[in-house]
Structure of Large ribosomal subunit protein uL5c:
Amino acid sequence: MRNSHLLEEKAEINRLLNNIKKEYEEGIQPVLAHNNPKMFGNCHKIPKLKKIQINRGLGLAAQNTNILKKSIEEFTKITGQKPVITKSKKAIAGFKIREDMELGLTVTLRGEKMYTFLTKLIFFTFAQIRDFRGLSVRSFDKAGNYSFGLKEQLIFPEIDYEDVVQVQGFTITLVISSYSKKTVFNNIFNGMVLLKFLRFPLNDSGYYERYESLQDISQVWDRKKHLRRKRWAQE
């Protein structure tokens, strides 16, 4: 029985590696709709990945032409798309920042480039992180989007160690869209469901496996909110 599950898991991973977009449309979407028709009966309610945003803040170092040029080259190699230079909206004298000053880089991936980057990220890049134990399930925002940081660019296969002048990281945001009830719980739950099907390495998602149904989890969240409000009222 255990070997059967291992074979199914390997087959699922191979399908995602082959074409993650096709597997989502032909494999993940029908499974969600079939297993929970009440929540995902409408195809527009099924969570899907809308875009991936990758950001790097350079601060005052962006004024150095060589550093800025090197970061642009790294972004282009990693994402296959030229980044946009982010600039300050107003002057802040205490931080020596002028208005319209170059401070960082950002890239927004959609379509095929988004799925290509996601495949590389899940199955190749995370494996290069030393002592990697997964990502926290608590990094979802209220809209159900997932954000996390990477400390260095060397974990990407396109980057040559000898070409790196300065070790710099990224902030990556997976923007997830779902047309469910606009509540924080539903947004986060939909994001967790999607990332779990995509084999995203969430290390503490097993916290919710102790509950038998979605209603049990919802009740726990309601109790926690009630206790927080009670504590705030006492303070």
In short: Residues 211-235 form one domain. The first helix runs from residue 2 to 18.
